[in-house]
Design a protein that fits this description.
The chain is mainly β. It has a single domain, classed as Oxidoreductase, molybdopterin-binding domain (Sulfite Oxidase, Chain A, domain 2, Alpha-Beta Complex), CATH 3.90.420.10. Helix content is 7%, strand content 30%. It has 3 helices and 11 strands. The strands form 2 sheets. Strands 1, 4, 5, 8, 9 and 10 form a 6-stranded mixed β-sheet that branches. The structure holds the ligand Nc1nc2c(c(=O)[nH]1)N[C@H]1C(S)=C(S)[C@@H](COP(=O)(O)O)O[C@H]1N2 and molybdenum atom. The site of molybdenum atom (MO) has 6 residues, from loops.
Length: 203
């Protein structure tokens, strides 16, 4: 009798061997594709013009592309959840941890606004960027991050809805008070936890 390879037939298998349903937040469906969601056109950012700057601390701190790529990069695999209800499991990235980027910055801020080329912004508590929970990613599935998905580099904060993961990021503005970003001002939730369906600001 022929044996059947694992993963063929029957229930969809979790690539990591766990329970798929348990990894899918409420109200989400799984997709194998990688949808593109952009509020505007894809900005062309040339590497020679690229810079990442953190302002709002005692002094601004910044990196050119060359300097940024010399920082230690980490490989990380995560599940991502868009508020339009698609989730994608086991996405494989490479990027620089926000712990690394924020380490040289003296500040007493509690929040950050991620600022992107094209004008997109999104706000996060600093604690959600620290502790190995967020990266500025430059590589997806082993390839330089495609412009449509935020290349040259994007924020990836997998534990929050994916609108918090600013594409084409050019810096962080550290703030004492929480300042809503683009979607947060348009009625989306200030924090955006997919597990408790924090999709919209309550009226
Ligand atoms: N600069 C910028 N970043 C952005 C967006 C955007 O419109 N502009 N869309 C957000 C939303 S709503 C989602 S779901 C993800 C989509 O990323 P993707 O296009 O790589 O799937 O990017 C987020 N980051
Ligand atoms: Mo989204």
């Amino acid at each position: 009798m022929a044996t059947v390879s694992r993963g063929f037939g029957g229930r969809r298998q979790d690539p990591a061997g766990g329970d798929l349903a348990a990894r899918t937040p409420p109200g989400q469906y799984l997709t194998d594709g990688f949808p593109v969601l952009s509020a505007g056109p894809t900005p062309g950012v040339r590497l020679e013009d690229w810079a990442f700057e953190i302002t709002g601390g005692r002094e601004p701190v910044g990196w050119t592309w060359e300097q940024f790529r010399r920082l230690p990069s980490e490989r990380f695999t995560c599940d991502i959840h868009c508020v339009t209800r698609w989730s994608k499991l086991e996405t494989a990235w490479e990027g620089v941890s926000l712990d690394t980027l924020l380490a040289p910055v003296a500040h007493d801020a509690g929040y950050a606004v991620a600022v992107s080329h094209g004008g997109y912004t999104t706000n996060l508590p600093l604690t959600d960027l620290l502790g190995g929970k967020a990266w500025v990613a430059h590589t997806y599935a082993g390839q330089p991050l495609h412009p449509e998905h935020g290349g040259p580099a994007r924020l990836v904060v997998p534990h929050l809805y994916f609108w918090k993961s600013a594409k084409w990021i050019r810096g962080l503005r550290l703030t004492a008070q929480d300042e809503p970003g683009f979607w947060e001002r348009a009625g989306y939730h200030d924090y955006g936890d997919p597990w408790t369906e924090q999709r919209y600001a309550s009226a």
